[in-house]
Please model this.
Amino acid sequence: DTEVTQTPKHLVMGMTNKKSLKCEQHMGHRAMYWYKQKAKKPPELMFVYSYEKLSINESVPSRFSPECPNSSLLNLHLHALQPEDSALYLCASSAVGQTQYFGPGTRLLVL
Amino acid sequence: QKEVEQDPGPLSVPEGAIVSLNCTYSNSAFQYFMWYRQYSRKGPELLMYTYSSGNKEDGRFTAQVDKSSKYISLFIRDSQPSDSATYLCAPGVDSGAGSYQLTFGKGTKLSVIP
Model:
């Protein structure tokens, strides 16, 4: 089983809202990733967690706040987003030295 | 020069054709070489991966890496309309603590015409 699940599938939020994206995997992977993908562009790395610790933050604005409560779960908390943050948000996971498997993504629209 | 260069296409071929998709890269530190397929409005799906120079075959798909020339290829034989998608090359480097970073090409949009 190489499944990464993400909820919700779609999200519409206003610029003053607070919302969270959720990602889950049960493959025993110890690295989890958040990516942002705009239309017709490749995914851009946002954050990397290794063994539940934040190891890479690609200079992402503080209105995005990641959290890794346990080895299977990854959250992305959203607050005071801008319309330009509308995108497909992808979660991925990998075992040590192995390939990354992506979830289906959450399509976010900020009004 | 971008780290990974990939012709965005679009590429349109008739059903049954052999498709060749290519990327070049500049970072000699890349250790892993992935190809992802992404259908419209879906997440990327891992298609092929290699860790060294040479060929790797899986059904109708062959991935080829030439580290000396920093060239990555994906060949699709007997292409099908269901192969119509965007193909992303993604070389990667170990970033420590069990994770690694992928650098994606822009993706090539492929259409296979019945």
